[in-house]
Amino acid sequence: xxxxxLAAAAEEEGRRKxxxxxxxxxxxxxxxxxxxxxxxxxxxxxxxxxxxxxxxSSSCCSALGLQNPLEVLGFDLMMKILGSLDARSxxxxxxxxxxxxxxxxxxxxxGSKCEELLLGKAHLPRLLHTQGLSKLAVYSLSVxxxxxxRIGRADLCDHAWEFHFTKAAPEYxxxxxxxxxxxxxxxxxxxxxxxSQTADPDDQVWGGHECCYTVVTSLxxxxxxxxxxxRINRWLQLDVHRKQDWGWEMSNDIFSYSSIADGYxxxxxxRPV
Length: 273
Hints:
Oligomer: single chain
């Protein structure tokens, strides 16, 4: 009888400890879910991700008496699970353990994430042509490049540009502009590495005049950008804007430029056609 009583007491103690561990685990899950939700609400940039400890580490699992999902499910099943998650969630799992990191950083996994990220983008970063980069590095660097709003000469020369006058432009010029006539194709402009700009041969507005451009950037003492614009000849400066599809816009009160996704052109960084 004493043996039975001791066994029953031991079983009851085991249930109590397991219940306590589960309560601690649930509290941890709720806490992390709230933190992650607040962080996601603060996240504004498309495709961006940050690494926060929202997955339980191996030491945490051991402390709570839980088994590591990687050990339970195995490599193949974990790859399928991670493949169904968004990029930010996969990035979070990189910090769980060395084993998780080796799976969560696999090119096979991040290759599909890169395709999702670049889908619908007007222009692709030149780093995609760099040999030897992992897909995880490509994803991270592409997100960083997509946030860049400082245009360079290479960006100007990489793309053909649609050009049109604004409503504030003189009526004479608007009457020559296909944009205001509702016709296509629109006028095009081309920037060249030697600092010159050209147009299509049949452009009625161009007139064959010489044209050059300059990218102007001035910095404050702390390194922050004070002014950044493009100037063509001595005309009004063009303010630069980056679109959500990673395209470029430059405009002033008189005319506007929009970059064209010209992946068909050799060396162009637009989406292939």
